[in-house]
Amino acid sequence: MTRQLHFNLFLHDTGHHEASWRLPESDPHANLSLEAHQHLTRVAEDAKFDSVFLADSPVLWSDPARRPSGKLEPTLLLAALAASTRRIGLIATASTSYNEPFNLARRFASLDHLSKGRAGWNIVTTAGDAAARNFGLDDQPLHKTRYERADEFLRVSTKLWDSWTDDAVIADKQRGVHALRDRVRAVGHHGEYFRVDGPLDVPRSPQGYPLLVQAGSSENGKEFAAKWAEAVFVAQPTLAESQAFYADLKRRAVAAGRNPDQVVILPGIVPVVGDTAAQARELDAELERLIAPEHAIGTLATVLGVDAERLKLDEPLPIDLPAEEEIEGHKSRRTLIVDWARRDNLTVRQLIGKLGGGRGHRTFTGTPVQVADTIQEYFENGAADGFNIMPAVLPSGIEAFAAKVVPILQERGLFRTEYTGTTLREHYGLPRPANSLELASR
Amino acid sequence: MTRQLHFNLFLHDTGHHEASWRLPESDPHANLSLEAHQHLTRVAEDAKFDSVFLADSPVLWSDPARRPSGKLEPTLLLAALAASTRRIGLIATASTSYNEPFNLARRFASLDHLSKGRAGWNIVTTAGDAAARNFGLDDQPLHKTRYERADEFLRVSTKLWDSWTDDAVIADKQRGVHALRDRVRAVGHHGEYFRVDGPLDVPRSPQGYPLLVQAGSSENGKEFAAKWAEAVFVAQPTLAESQAFYADLKRRAVAAGRNPDQVVILPGIVPVVGDTAAQARELDAELERLIAPEHAIGTLATVLGVDAERLKLDEPLPIDLPAEEEIEGHKSRRTLIVDWARRDNLTVRQLIGKLGGGRGHRTFTGTPVQVADTIQEYFENGAADGFNIMPAVLPSGIEAFAAKVVPILQERGLFRTEYTGTTLREHYGLPRPANSLELASR
User: Fold this and answer.
1) Is residue B265 domain-resident?
2) Whole-number Å distance between alpha carbons of A67 and A288
């Protein structure tokens, strides 16, 4: 079969542009609305997208004055969406730093059962001291420590998901035996961060494991992705940088003993689709005008690890910013932003304008054919296996992409016209993992 | 308005009788089926029940050979059910011993938003060493310690639910102000078990707090209920014992400075409804025949805190059982079982027969009129404000109760014929809590 694109819709209430909620047509309460999320997910499902995705951090993560900052917990929201959809995959972000493996493993196994094999987990280590202070800590654990814990968290979780063999439940009414006792086993994990006896209280789920997704591009993040991730979200501003990232991560996967085709790389893009190129540019400009730069400065300062007072709107970034090695969170985001500002010689105000739209992701602005061409260019030139679609404005941005761009790609044979599988792993062409306990006992 | 009954359906896949999955008509995979739970919930909603409820413990809690022991995590399953229903309340059990307040508070606030005000939390401290060993401990914390932690957990959670005032979100597109900064506040909790900065990442939910439910009947449990619970599930085998419990708990609520009408007491009952009394008794007997007593002995031994070998099927319970004070979990369940066995002079086999059906709850066996009469008797004689309905077999048990018993109670004016409110609190006649932060700042 010809290699085909994969599409994920990054759900974000009224859109990824921070001013999108202020547009006349936007529902400023969409962040807490099941119906708004049902609509977005159905549009993506009708367009045969592989999945939808929700970001997360267990903290109030932006100034509540500036934009809708309240959110629905992702595993619950996706469980509700599982009941409202049939085929599309459902990827929730959850933190390995602020959860216990038993609790999270059972939630993802439950989501996989509820959705009949459509669950995915975007694994994050959660940057920031504010989150740490919701969990009894003074400061966040070191970046390296967070990744060590994440690695052990995955080792525990996969053991728990494997603690029932696939054939454990026999449901023999006559003999009165529901599951075979020797096919349900304790995991007895005793590690540095966790001790977990098990077994899990959820039988092995349709996909075996949820799809494992990762998004950090720091050195630790890329090593973690090479070892564990089956799909990777990434932010790269140019084709060349996307190609470099793509080649590097596939190489790392091979070095980790894996098949590089089983690591699906999905750059984030912000499609801005107009019937004419001029119309698309006009929409872009309208959004930039809506940003209140004084609100955005605080967020930028946090990512860069400097005091907000040091950033002047009409000057370039300060020269003596902390290096990537000196900050403990958002490492790759920080470097991407700094490199971008310096390369294009942007003032802080101009930088905020760019970030408000794409937050470091590439904006594809143009007519449907132009956007489809750029997607094809990335896909056929070693920069992407598909895309994480992050419309600046929702639902209109995904409606336009689904109605105008997707049919062009389908016509070119680059995207499915119907689902061929039923699980999220099948959509992405990824195998169902064998049961490690089962293999060990053969 | 006349005082009316409240009904909760205790969801339990093929029924509360441990052999129910073996009946020819039972789906032995119902425990992991969204559709099976959707059907049960819709039957209860069509009958105008106040709520459905899911038990939980973060552990594989029964021998997987004996009955369906895998389960779907309750907050996720109820989120999926929120998307499939409109009016009925959704009560999930969750542990204060094996969760962090920030994580759980945001899940219940999210469920309340998703369901438009229909979330309830059955607060448990989780008995048993097996659960503790899924969370890095060797043994469960002491009963008293678990309740101290639960109390602080509730103090943190209510502060988090109050960390946004009800009027915080103004969504002023013109000025670009989504929420008022001074109406979203850190909680700064520094206690013995938890330090939590806050604010919550979820704005105040439709009900303010989820309905707070409790079910333990130990001394610590009853004190906790008197302080926090708005609805209480209880197991009492006779009318007299239900009356004593009812009077005692209402008295404790008054002593805690609360309005006793705002603590709704719901004894668990197992209705066995036949068109004739003989038919009802026949169904009862058929289920008892299906139990494999050798499987049930282990569970009974665990609750009693003795080795399984000490229990002989055709002898009474040993005389020298550990006292309630000597065991660290299931205290009230243990005492109820021991008292019952001694009072009725039961052998272990007979006791297992009784427990397999009602697990210590009262079985109401008879014709629809007989069952309705008993319900009315309890309700009008200081033993109950309503009932936690635990059919031995599902879905048939709730279908029969809804079709045959509910209409009799409606005709007598004892139960609603239509929902009058939209939230779970409104169904139970309970107030929406005022915002403590808001009150403090006036």
Assistant:
1) yes
2) 15
Alpha-carbon distance B342 to B351, whole Å? Answer: 10
User: A55 and B58 in contact (C-beta within 8 Å)?
Assistant: no
Mutate to test the interface with B, among A103, A196, A205, A286 (most CBs of B within 10 A): A103
Backbone angles phi, psi at A356, to 5 degrees: -60, -35
B63 is in an annotated binding site: no
A360 has pLDDT over 70? no
* Identity of the residue in B63, B75, B184 whose CB atom sits nearest the CB atom of A64: B184
Mapped onto helix, strand or coil, the DSSP state of residue B98 is coil
CATH of the domain at A435: 3.20.20.30
φ, ψ dihedrals at A22, nearest 5°: -85, -10
Provide the domain count of chain B. Answer: 1
Q: Which residues pair with A204 in a beta bridge?
A: none
- pLDDT per residue over B87-128, tens digit each? 999 999 999 999 999 999 999 999 999 999 999 999 999 989
Per the CB < 8 A criterion, the answer to whether B181 and B192 are in contact is no
Give Cβ neighbours of residue B161 (< 8 Å, ≥ 6 apart). B105, B109, B200, B204, B205, B208, B209
What does the alpha-carbon distance between residue A72 and residue B106 come to, in Å, rounded to a whole number? 8
d(C-alpha A271, C-alpha B63), whole Å: 53
For B297, the token pair is 């002995």
Angstrom distance (rounded) from CA B422 to CA B432 = 12
**What pLDDT does residue B360 have?**
60
d(CA B62, CA B28): 15
Indicate whether A347 belongs to any domain.
no
- For residue B62, the model assigns a pLDDT of 79
Answer yes or no: pTM beyond 0.95: no
- Give yes or no for a contact between A80 and A172, defined as CB atoms under 8 angstroms apart: no
Q: What is the mean pLDDT of residues A156-177?
A: 96
* Chosen from B73, B112, B140, B193 to mutate, greatest number of chain A CBs within 10 A: B73
Instruction: Please give the angle made by the CA atoms of A256, A258 and A262, to the nearest 5 degrees.
Output: 135
Max distance between CA atoms of chain A, in angstroms, equals 79
AA letter at B210: P
The closest alpha carbon to B359, from B269, B261, B428, belongs to: B269
Complex prediction ipTM: 0.93
Q: What 3-state DSSP class applies to B261?
A: helix
Contact call for B60 and A130, based on CB within 8 A: no
> In terms of residues, how long is chain A?
442
Task: Tell me the C-alpha to C-alpha distance, in Å, between residue B146 and each of B96, B119, B128, B153.
Answer: 8, 24, 11, 10
Flag whether pLDDT at A1 surpasses 60: no
Q: Where are the beta strands (DSSP E) in B102-188?
A: 119-124, 169-172, 177-179
Which among B66, B75, B195 has CB closest to A178? B66
Domain that holds residue A89: 6-270+374-407+414-440
Question: Is B54 within a domain?
Answer: yes
CB distance B72–A198 less than 8 Å? no
3-class DSSP assignment, residue B409: helix
Residue B396 lies in a domain: yes
A123 pLDDT more than 80: yes
Q: What mean pLDDT comes out for the span B329-338?
A: 80
In three-state secondary structure terms, A366 is strand
Tell me the pLDDT band of B63, cut-offs 50, 70 and 90: confident
Q: DSSP 3-state assignment of A416?
A: coil
- Among B312, B279, B391, smallest CA distance to B43 is for B391
